[in-house]
Structures
1.
Amino acid sequence: MAVQKLPLAKALNESLRKALETDPKVVIMGLDVGKLGGVFRITDGLQKDFGEDRVVDTPLAESGIVGTAIGLALRGYRPVVEIQFDGFVFPAYDQIVTQLAKMRARSLGTVKMPVVIRIPYGGGIGAVEHHSESPESLFAHVAGLKVVTPANSSDAYWMLQQAIQSDDPVIFFEPKRRYWDKGEVDTEAIPGELHKARVAREGTDLTLVAYGPMVKTCLEVAAAAAEEGKSIEVVDLRSISPLDFDTIQASVEKTRRLVVVHEAPVFFGSGAEIAARITERCFYHLEAPVLRVGGYHAPYPPARLEEEYLPGLDRVLDAVDRSLAY
Amino acid sequence: MTVESTAARKTTRRSSGTKRTASASTSTTKKATAATASEPELVQLLTPEGERVQHPEYDIDLSAEELRGLYRDMVLTRRFDAEATALQRQGELGLWASLLGQEAAQIGSGRALRDDDYVFPTYREHGVAWCRGVDPTNLLGMFRGVNNGGWDPSTNNFHLYTIVLGSQTLHATGYAMGIAKDGADSAVLAYFGDGASSQGDVNESFVFSSVYNAPVVFFCQNNQWAISEPTEKQTRVPLYQRARGFGFPGIRVDGNDVLACLAVTRSALERARRGEGPTLIEAFTYRMAAHTTSDDPTRYRRDAEREEWEAKDPILRLKAYLENEGHADAAFFEELEAESEALGKSVREVVRAMPVPDHMAMFDNVYADGHALVDEERAQYAAYQASFEGGEAE
């Protein structure tokens, strides 16, 4: 049967396996992706089945990993790079922003850069510093990159397939605290478009926009609000660049209120872009200013404080109440 | 020479400091001198005077025609370069990075390549581009400001110029890893300079290429200056010696000797093809011109140093050899001069006629598979432009 109930991590693993099976040019690269199967076991068993040439343990140097992936792409390969944790991507930031993102335009369209960079991101797992960050805006700001993040097992499986098939560089953010959440995956389904948002729960009073780890939080918010008689619509963005403003607009024209939720700091976060564009598109529909809930303008705090920093049920509900009170 | 003069300058500068600083600087200078003294000779096959000398490990046997070919390459490259500098002065180019003085390093290494090999240049490899058959005027688009790269790298297996230092050495290494995966026997030649040798990416490329035994040759043109900073600001050991710590051979070659550069690069590429891994070649040369047309070397280096290197000119020494050996006659040099003039003229004409791209072009090729925001902004900008033309606005 093609429908299985899989943890999000296992769905990613199955997706990588499928990619390795179907395209001989797919190469997985990263730290500890071989025998160990990655620190989160996303590549578990792949080196054993596909060999060290396809699933490559690299030296411990992120810029080197992405830089050589660019070279492999120029040679016709389709590298899927694993960055071990969000906070470790910055040594590779130069290669990603300066080289990977711009190569196609610089070559006047003669070069393609089918490189996927997988990054487990976000907090909520009690980790030490540099293991809980949400740097998606730093990539979405860069022309030439695409940025996506699944929120459930089915999207994890299919969006990774689509990212690998894309001829553009895709930064693939994986909500690490949701790795162990199970969901149905139909490996024979016809997937939706990679860069289209999804209405995860319908509602009429207010729209919550979220992505990655915050989708589950917002669904819980919507369930709690329903008990108080408030009908909340939840939009799972799925793709941050490009961003599906049409789906948000359609929702806001119906609910007239919008709250954007992400773990990343609010300041210059994706919520700011969404607020600006939706205000432009829905100025006469809005009953309240677009509100944002997210991290603070402070370094990601020590694990014992992260529940205070991360948007949780209460903070999102507070924003919902403030919006509805307008 | 350079090392002595910079060491001397350093001592002079520091002698005005406190006693403690002065004594510390003395020991620094001594150490630097000791390192310099232990440097092995560089590989040389043609002396500055144009005398052919033998080297026990590297030799090369070229016909008179091949020797004339190398000479022609260097002369035409220098002419192209001079033309580009002039075009910048005339306002036709925004900037130019001259290769003056580095012709032997570039032509020697460039002519060691096979067609199926792949080159990753910096932004100064005009001579290597020439060897690869890249239309020289293609190199000028970026400097004229009509594109940011502007050619298909796969046409001549010559990658786009890379401005951020050292990044391309990793691309070269990755490409070489791909060659190895394909089971092909091509090799990759990666260029960088003494300044870029300090970059993390260059050092990471040494690690990756060594660990994967990738068929890549690193060709470092040590032209003594990273804009205003002398090589001693980048390293305490001769650059080629760094290779040993990464587990592959390094060799210093006279970068103004086209024969030695050819012989050493050819040997390193063959080694890579045999699956024996990377090599670091340090071509010891000199940047005769400014870093770019925006630079002013009189602020940081002596005229005398340049004069010392003028005596080692790569073109003059090969000319002396060709003449002394009777490998080229007056007619050859006259014809080359005419060819050189014609090249200059055609470069001028092509550059001046180079079209400014259509203003919508900035939205092109941002993505291979398209992007909704780029489409939206393209349409907005087109509508804005059309609003000036009356009636065409959406």
2.
Amino acid sequence: MTTTTAASAEPGERTVRKSSPGAARGPRRTGRIKRIGLPYLLLLPALVLELLVHLVPMVIGIVMSFKELTQFYIRDWGTAPWAGFDNYSVSVHFDEPVGEALLHSFFVTIGFTLLSVGLCWLIGTAAAIYMQDNFVGRGVLRALFLVPYALPVYAAVITWVFMFQHDNGLVNHVLHDQLGITDKPSFWLIGDNSFYALLTVSVWKGWPFAFLIVMAGLQNIPGELYEAAALDGAGLWQQLRRITLPSLRPVNQVLVLVLFLWTFNDFNTPFVLFGKTAPESADLISVHIYQASFVTWNFGTGSAMSVLLLLFLLVVTGVYLLLTSRGRKTADV
Amino acid sequence: MNPGAVIAPSGKGTEAAMRRIRAAAAGAVTITLLTAATACGGGSSDGGSNASPKTLTYWASNQGASIEIDKKTLAPELAKFEKQTGIKVKLEVVPWSDLLNRILTATTSGQGPDVLNIGNTWSASLQATGALLPWDAKNFDKIGGKDRFVDSALGSTGAEGKDPAAVPLYSMAYALYYNKQMFADAGIKNPPATWDELIADGKKISKNGKWGLGAEGSNASENIHHAFVFAKQHGADFFTADGKADFTNDGVVAAVKQYVDLMAKDKIIAPGNAEYAQNQSVSDFAKGKNAMLLWQSAAANLKSQGMADDAYGIAPVPVQSGTPGTGTNVNSMVAGINLAVFKNTKNLDGATKFVKFMTSDAEQKILNGAYTSIPPVKTAQTDTAFNSPSNAVLKDTLAKSAAALPQVADESQFETAVGTAIKGLFADAAGGRAVTTASVKAALEKAQQQMPKK
């Protein structure tokens, strides 16, 4: 897809651009303004709502992060004293308990996100490739695979909570009672194992999305490519490496980014799984920030942590997009 | 140039679409993220008014076995109130897991109920927010005066020296519930009066899948309630006299360790209880899995789970030695529910009338009877209905050997920080890790560092 696409993209854009100076000449100018203005006019309501719904709360959030917003002031934010960068310095003093806990939570989240996204992508892609060939029951299987993604989060995760229970949970019943893998029933919702419990649920819930997107991406790869490759003597593995994966590149690029952001920010899964305070080994940053603000009633620090998280994710996303798009351009030439 | 390029081939379409999606994704980061940073809208500082005198919104805490049962219990009483005053009360029963957050959100936004139930231990914390109507002498006069209420209940209505932030509604105390049949099977004649006896009895019972005692290891509030009593019994407090957090003094460390040791060392609590937070230990007790339970006013709950009243006995919570009393022989917190008026109410008169109604002798008898709690109103407490043997234990405890949790502004944070630390210690005990004085102290130290600095 690479070479043809790049060659066609450039002239295409130029053609569009060329048409506009021509229209600007003479008395048709007002008409042109109208023509150009209309889309913006139509966009205006959406823009205003966007500002109202997204930007205003964001700005308030940032303002909050500079205030000492504790229980004594939440009733009337205006009276909360300005804290300058105090909330930030508390959050980033990593040798102090608050900063240390935040950093710990940050690393847990990074590890968790990398593993979860990696596994989601791997399982989703593998499943999508297996589902490419036509066989009896393919439709049923595809539908079945999507169930975890379609289920409401709460219903799905609370079911996992029951399965992970120490005394009556299905997981221990299978691992311990039936297979005898562990010498005694393990704890999944407290202690160190909770990381794996969280990872399991996250992957279980996330991979169908990867499956869906990759499956859609696969439909776009022309069958002739595989036929030609087969004629040239390429095996399955080579076809996968040389045709499937490169063709899926733009799809994967977005998929991985979206999965990364969703997983990094996931609040529902750990919250339903562990409640208001997560075990240390599974202390994801979203729940950590929630705890920092709602449980200790210190909304200023919570906001400061959120803003830091926002900055981090903006940087990650920016660098990611820069690297991947640069990679794409060089590949295109 | 390639003329075919004008008609965009599908490859270009995908590219453009991808670029758009990428831009959208970048936008999405910005958007999804700061939703986390923003809580709810602005607050308002105006006081109450009488702008809407015909309706009231009432948030009730979940006192019965379920929210549905609570609605059924309260509905006829609210109908009575409407008949008397013409004010319609909109009832919402809020689960305990949400109540404090809901109140905080209401405080922040200024949009809340008119009248609400609060856990009495939160009184001082919520008082500090200024969201609740202070009960000064004038307000108390409207509901019949402060001296209608028992002192121990009034001791849990806010910081000392300030007007109470709420009035007592239901009083409760911890007691030891024991399964008579299981005690008889193990050859135990009398319920234990000291912790040593409780451990000895527990060891007799803890075998063959049965356990001596139940606990809610992952429930921060339950952990705090027990740790507080153990601390008192060690002559220690979690706060210094001037209200500073002091979680690592020897008495507190010993107290927390003694509580967790019931699972870690004495092994009379099933390890699985370490992850309990939804009253599973009450169900276990009702099903005969645990022979003992330390709980507040459990009778109604046990009944709804199918346990007959005569299947269990109620005794005072054990002490280190001697009999329950004051000082180091405290054996319960002053548990209970307070009724508060939201300062931003649009129906101040109606709200006050409602508080008067709910604390009237008649309603106190009906509601405390239904919830098997003790009326904090003196005249209602003397009713014969509250003189049954089980209620006698609770009443006695409240009158003689219960102490109020610290009435400090940071109480709520204390509950969370220390309660969570104990949850972690239970997790250690359940996972087979050693629980030592050093590890307890380290956990408490960490909790103390999380407390607000001043």
3.
Amino acid sequence: MNRNLSERKYVVIAIFVIVAVIFIVRLLILQVFDDSYILSAENNVLRKITIYPNRGRIYDRNGELLVYDEAAYDLLVIPRQVKDMDTAEFCRVLNISDSVFKVKMKKAKKYSRYKPSIFLEQISKHEFGYLEEKLYKFPGFYVQTRSLRKYTRPIAAHTLGYIGEVNSREMKADSYYSQGDYIGKSGIEKFFEKDLRGRKGVEMVMVDVHNRQQGSYKNGKYDTLSVPGKDLYLSIDADLQAYAERLMQNKIGSIVAIDPETGGILAFVTSPTYDPNLLVGRVRGKNFGLLMHDSLKPLLNRAIMGTYSPGSTFKPVQALIGLQENVLRKSTSYVCYGPATTPIKCTHNHQSPLQLQQAIEQSCNPYFWNVFKSIINNPKYRSAEEAYKVWRSYVLSFGFGTKFKTDIPFEVSGNVPTAEYFNKIYGKGHWNALTIRSLAIGQGEILVTPLQLANESVIIANKGYYYPPHIVEATGSPDNIIKEFRVKKKTMVEPDKFDVVREAMLEVFEGEHGTARWAKLEGVKIAGKTGTVQNPHGKDHSIFVAFAPMDNPKIAMSVIVENSGYGSTWAAPIASLMIEQYLNDTITRPRLEKRILDGNLISRY
Amino acid sequence: MRRGNNILQNIDWITVLLYLILVLVGWVNIYAAVYNEEHGSILDMTQNYGKQLLWIGTSVLLALVILLIDAKFFSTFSYLIYFLTLMLLIGVLLFGREIAGSKSWFQIGSFSLQPAELGKFATALALAKYLSGIDKDFSKFKTKVVAAFIIMFPAMLILLQHDTGSALVYTSFILVLYREGLSGNLLILGLIVAILFVVTLLVNKFIVIGIIAALFILFYLLNKAVRKRLFPLIGVFIIASMYVLSVDYVFENVLEPHQKKRINVLLGIETDIRGAGYNVHQSKIAIGSGGFSGKGFLKGTQTKFDFVPEQSTDFIFCTIGEEWGFVGSFILIMLFLALLIRLIFLAERQRSKFSRIYGYGVASVLFFHFTINLGMTIGLFPVIGIPLPFISYGGSSLWGFTILLFIFIKQDSERLELL
């Protein structure tokens, strides 16, 4: 019996061995065959901290800082670490109500009791100064630095654009972005997003179970440095831009001024506009809503999205086409019967017959009907349609009907109707110059943007060529010029054809009967052309194109003032003042300036 | 002089060496588990590894004292030691300090003592003393009852302290009783009872009864010998069914909520990685992330950054698994297995029944701790808070296990002088 029992030691040892084998197999599975625990462990301890680089700054053509990043602060909370605190004082410091505090706290707790979540976003530097002093009283609250876009001057809101948090579509399109990142939403902030944003850096840190940082992971082997965004150097002249915005106050319309030598935009105004600082930080959402629902549509960039009939400002283009097509000479004269003229009457009182220069200077409608007729009826072409197609290609070579595709987002192309369009309406072979006569004086189906009009004056200033209008000259450093924007585009009109048109446009200011003689600037030879565009919805739009100085043009521009009547009344003096400001940097005509500044052409209804 | 020489000559150095290795492994891993750069000194008494050094030092002293005491002392005073321990266990219920829901600690100044740790060797001694009596025949019913009572009395007192883990340790003495003649069927019965318990929690109890019924019918049809004993068979079936039906009741009404939760989590009935399942989940992550060769000494992140709770006491194996990987875990298991088998070997070579029974007691207690502790950290057993012998941080447990082991080493060293 006893001997028998001592055999039982083998059973006991067998039990020990079985348990050990079970453990070893289990550990083999856990440690060797299953990799998921390694991942879980990393999830436990590793936190990826994003280092946000400073977004690129934006300078004007004279090196004046326009946009920069200013430190802003997000207040974070780790609910578990929040201890007894004076809620009333806390709310007072942050200027929030007790109920807001409760809601935010509840939200944070719902997200996680251990992980930090944003309690209050984008506290300004000013507010933060006060908070920082008191922060020690509120354990569990931390501050994370973010940056806010700051605008030095309340100008050029549409041009500069704004940034906002990425939406799901933008995140899907570019994996660089993650929730909460900022992205350029409009203007050059959007177009130059990739230059401005720089590159985010990543820091891998280890945290303990209470989410307290315990140092870097593997000595920063997986960390990446952030790269600051590239600065942008604009062609915009901040002073001119500011002055232009002042001139346009209480008016609806736009001003586009371009440096003819480069195509760089000097001033880019749409009115009414808004202060770009309104769309920054916590106030953005509220202000955006207000701007959105404003009946005057301040968010609409009329300079690129508004389309107008060019009206009389189109006459120089018509003349140039006629000259190039050899159906018009400087000396060609036509008769005008004033309001009695058919098929297009004249609204101006002038001598008759008259030659090309006088016709431009005094904006004679019948004269340009005759020019247009001779282009379309040119025997060189077999049909009106064929001639029209040629005419249209001339117009397109002036930059009308197309987009410049430079750095101006949301640009529209306007409209230069195609021959097919008329074929469809009137039937092939059933239309001629008379049918489409409105085009002779820049009315009818043709629609242009203020930017295209400004470009027209650039072309005339340059005698036949232009550089695509653009806002940004260089990225990174002022010398790093964007070459794509410096590709010369030639029109189909030869340079020698421009002289007579330019002389005529000079006479618009200088001539005895010039339509803009009231806005003449002593000492500077300005060439211009007025336009008054019939507006089916109300008072006519006042339009003006101009460039100066005549012999060595430094600025070319278009001005549109909606519902203001004649071009000579508002648009021409504004252009003249702009030119004076840009070329002379002083205003010698305070009375004229005052009349413009005081002019309130907005009737809200 | 001759005597002192004898002690050193007759000691089983293999066991002593295994003991020292395990204690050292324990200390190194306690150091790793709580290590941080602010407290670099190994003697920092504010840290667990500093204090553990103190416990190790005093344990070695205790071991030496035991080796110097006459071996007969323990067999002679077995009942007295058992009685004093019972007094302590009762005393702790009256005067003890409550820590984490268990009223099982004496607090004397900054020093705390857990009498339950001493209960193990005292019970082993008393059991050995009782069963080694010349007139005791284990086949007698009365002997079985008294032996069971010796084991269960301290276990009940510990259960009253709400220290379920330590109380469960006493079930390990069933191995001792088995060696002394308890029917092997009882071991199998215990296993069946445990399996039925788990299966009933996992599966609808009526399905379980149906399966049992099917098995019995199959058994009845296939085995001619059984066919003659129809009524006992039906009786056993009824008892099994009653047991299955009562499992629910026991589970719902006898177990405490946290125990129910731990069992549910283990069985996968509940997944609660933030609550009751948190410990095991994090423990498995720590061990699993160690991989084959481990992250390296002091490089473990899961234990060091406190993701694993109790990382220097009950969950010390996580640090070993994380920093030393499968290789380290394997070696540790082998060390324990070697110690356990060595103890059985030593027990079997004893001439005195007392020493043999005591030796089996030591092996059984260590085996139980090893099994439950490791099983819990790798998610094979519910979380029962008992330490890993010699490895886990803690003065009371290290003292307890040292005394338990060295009394046997002492008995073994004098095995030739006895009788």
4.
Amino acid sequence: MAVQSVEASPAETTHPAASAAPVSLGPAVALSCRECGERFALGPIFACELCFGPLEVAYELPTGDPEALRQQIEAGPNNIWRYAPLLPVPADVADQPNLNPGFTKLVKADNLARELGVTGGLFIKDDSGNPTHSFKDRVVAIAVEAARAFGFTTLSCSSTGNLAGAVGAAAARSGFRSCVFIPHDLEQGKVVMAAVYGGELVGIEGNYDDVNRFCSELIGDPLGEGWGFVNVNLRPYYGEGSKTLAYEICEQLGWRLPDQIVIPIASGSQLTKIDKGLQELIKLGLVEDKPYKIFGAQAEGCSPVSTAFKAGHDVVRPQKPNTIAKSLAIGNPADGPYVLDIARRTGGAVEDVNDEQVVDAIKLLAQTEGIFAETAGGVTVGVTKKLIESGALDPSLSTVVLNTGDGLKTLDAVAPTTGPTATIRPSLDAFRDAGLAR
Amino acid sequence: MSVKVRIPTILRTYTGGESEVSAEGATLSEVIADLEKNHAGISARVLDDTGKLRRFVNVYVNDDDVRFEQGLETATPDGAGVSIIPAVAGG
């Protein structure tokens, strides 16, 4: 099949840390620095040795008849591997032991739309339907294939909770050892979910940024040699998994771009990769080339990106997180500057809501659509409401809001204000006396 | 003031493969200047053309991110540990 290069292609540099043998990861041809454009051979590296900028996967993507590619995708499995021709994975990826995440529901949220006054169509991309109930299964699935290609035998990560569970599960299924690191004070649901798969789970006395720093030091130490850290040395591949959210949303909309998308921001990687996925679909001719707006959502207690956006800055000043939305509690977001670029380029915005608004939004989504979101979903729904009220988000346009995880993981957030209506004796009189007869 | 500096993998070509080196200086700025004296070229990897920390470099003095302190003017007391870490991890 003919190919097209989607990145500029200056001379490639082989990084000394990269695997000596060339690897085959489908259409991926190199790693490219997002800051300075320097290219490196595919390998387990993540930062540019010239400028420290983030490396991302450069591709030779299929060209030719978009209709043929569309048919090939539609004939594929009901998971992210239907998009294998656009991902850094081997051609036989669907035959490898993997959790096969993706193709989660895009729910037309008419009740919530009425509540919020949206007339252009409101959709929830509900990623709680993934194998470990968060979008992290998508990114981990890609990282597993990279880890296999580079010969790693241990999978690891720094995690705010969801990722630890996704790595533990993927490692168990795919035959890797796992050792994952989390802040010591996470929600019980996430801790148990991360531990149940049998790998090692280590609580670090500190916040996520402390955990992340620890992992970055571990990877440069002989203690971490031979480890595939999905969101450190495998991060360029891992991040690409979030493109599948863009692909699915457009395919589920009948191969159309939404007008507006509201995406949660932790490190910002997911938002930047959804934008990358949308751009790829346009270049491939799979969707019409038309404007879309990307909105980022943060919790007020950890809002470095929205603070920078509102102040007109292009530098993100780190914060010390203090919010119930722990899966978004990254005070020093690696991709923050790129989120600002994308929100401004597309005419979107970055906004935040406080913890009370997060809880209200979780309940609003549950009570209108029957979807129980984790706190990150409360953040996106809450920010959507706020953006509509401020006029930044146009209710007459089609809008997709991401729910990236399951509310069962963050019960602590809603438990204090959510419980039984009444507890009664098993008698009709008691039922009547409690005022429950309608 | 003598400090220990942890060097990330991508800068170890400048330190002969060493993951930790000693440097002198009362502030981070002076420490980086001293590193440059002994490991020529390393300063331009950590600082941009205007002499500021590159935006994708995190530097810690002991456990403190210098962006929460005084940046390049953060004090580096005798015996402190300085860590230079790529910022593009996590998430």
